[in-house]
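Marked as duplicate of an earlier ticket. Keeping the data here for the record.
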Amino acid sequence: MTLPTDLDNDAGALRAAMVKGLAAAGAGRPANPAWLVAAGNVPRHVFVPGFYLPADEPDGQGLTVWEPVTSKLDYGRWLAASYSDTTLITQFDGEETDWERPAVRHGGAPTSSSTLPSLVLRMWSDADVSEGHTILEIGTGTGYSTALACERLGSSHVTSVEVDPVRLRGAADALYGCGYTPSLARADGVYGYWPEAWFDRIVAACSFRSVPLALLRQTRPGGKVLLPLSGWLYGNARVLLTVAGDGTAEGALLPGTISFMPARTHTAPAYGNPADWAAGLQGAPRSARHAPDRITAGTEDAFHLRFLAQSAVPDAQMVTTDGVVHLIDSVSGSAATLTPDGGDWSVREGGPVKLWSRIERFVDAFDAAGRPGPQTYTLRVDGDGQRLLHPGLPQLRLPVG
């Protein structure tokens, strides 16, 4: 362990280096350097007194080994990571860590983090935030992104809500300790925050299955809402909506492969034992027209297609056990399995929704249209629901609620 010599100077040097790297990578967008200036003034280390980093190797069961990092455990590692362009996991499975006596973790689902600075700056830039705007941030988290907004706009223009009371308390301590005084509230971001409405911009740091209508109603006419969208297949997209005077909204999907943790009220339900679902499938298998890696491969094309396919089967979840891919829809009772078959895949389906068949039909249409990218799709929210529109592809609907 390397003991600190001068925390302010050490942090200042690392912060300057981080901002220089972000500028070189274009994180702050050359036409709008104000967010880089804000990043140069906000001490990120204050907002992450403890976090986890992954070890180089998984454990014997293949689980990620998460190592706790604090200034007491390793000052140098803690401070360097605080000013790296890295997402720092601060909570697993909704459970708080005793950072005075943290322990190594094996596996687990991250439920809170300090998002990598380049993405935070990108989110604020994509939302087209300018001086004088009032903003609502959904998901305070550690408070670092909130601090950037306060630094840029002034605390009186910033409202941030967080559903986790312990997370909110820690963020408030850090923010107030740095001299930032935004409006903070414990609230479910699905419903926004009416006491501070209306807002010029609403920006979410968590993802939703569909656009929460309360957020549109709390946005000034002509204002904008930047939302990550995701679902139970873990397909992701982002949309920038402009809200009209009649409360409808429309906007294009944004390019890029970015994912966020889901809002807790939009997380996928437990689905039980995949073997139980597979046992109920009847009838002979057929050959799959598309392999599952069309939507699971680690490519930008597959990432985008996974989101669209998910919109075709919005209540489906996917899990792989012993090489067999299971699709499970706990809402309709439908299920499907894809099993390797001599270099190809065989499919069995059951229930009112033929899950993989529906995905295949959309993939066929997607290929026939030339595999159009995210920015060619428009999300429209009006009296007819929430529809993803493309001139050459079938209309898709986001789930309600």
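See parent ticket for discussion. The first helix runs from residue 7 to 25.
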